[in-house]
Amino acid sequence: MxxxxxxxxxxxxxxxxxxxxxxxxxxxxxxxxxxxxxxxVIIYNMVYYQTGSLGLMCFSFISxxxxxxxxxxxxxxxxxxxxxxxxxxxxxxxxxxxxxFGHEISSAMIALYVGGSIFGNVWSVTAVSQEKxxxxxxxxxxxxxxxVIALIIAGICRLFHLQDFAEPKWLEQLYQVSKIGMIxxxxxxxxxxxxxxxxxKQDLIHSCKVMLPKLVLxxxxxxxxYFVIANPFMNHYIGLMFFLFCLPPAANIVAxxxxxxxxxxxxxxxxxxxxxxxxxxxxYGVIWQFIKR
Length: 293
Description:
mainly alpha; 14 helices; about 0% strand; Na+/H+ antiporter like fold
C-alpha cells in the first residue's frame, strides 16, 4: 500500500488537473497539507520525541547551506543555487520516503524536514529578492512559518509533560490518518502542477547538470557524517539522509520569485528538476531495497 498510494494520489491529481476546479483543489490540498497534516505530524513526533532528532535537524540545515554555497560559486546565480538547496521535502519528500523506508522513519523525516524548512524560510526571500531583508524581517518570517509554529506548540506540550500521560487511542489514529493524508494531498498537488507545466529538453539537461554534482556533494557530506561524526543514531538513518540529495526544488520558490521579482524563471527548473528527481528516486529506491535484502 505504501508503494501504491503515492502513485494513486499522483494519478488522481493528474486527472483532476483537467477539471475546472483544479485551481481551488490545488489551494485546498496545499493549505490542508501545509496548515494541518504536516504541523500535526511534527507536533506528534516532537511531543513523543525521539532522541537524536536535533542532530538530523542540524544535518538537514547545514547540508542545505553547503549545497547553496557550492551552487552559488559554480553558477553565480542565487536562484539556481536556491533550487538546488531548498528541496521539496513536503509534497514529494514525505510520500516517497515513507514508500521507500517505511512508516518507522516518520520522526526522523520530520526532523530533516524541519531543518530544511528553516533553511528555506531564512534563505528563500533573500535569494529571490533584489531588496535586502533585515534580520528582523527574516526572523519574523521564520517564526510565522507553520513548521516553527508546530515546534513551539510541541515545546509547550513537552513543558507540561504531556508525553508522560498515556497516549489516547484517537490521537494515534489521527496520526495515522494524517500520514496518509500527507501523502495523498502532497502527491495530488504535484500531479496537478506537473500536468500543465511545459518542460524542454534543455531544461532536463540543466536539471541533470544540477542533480549529478548534488549527488556527489551528498555522498561526501553523508560519508563525512557516517565515518567522522559517527553518531549511532544518525548512522542508522544514513540512507534517508542521502535521500535528501535526490529531491527536487521546493515548489513555492516560484511563488516567492514571482512576488519579489515579477518573474517565474524557477518554474521550469522546478518542473524539470521534479522529473529528473522522480527518476533518481526510483533508481535509488530499487538500489536501497536491494541493499536492505
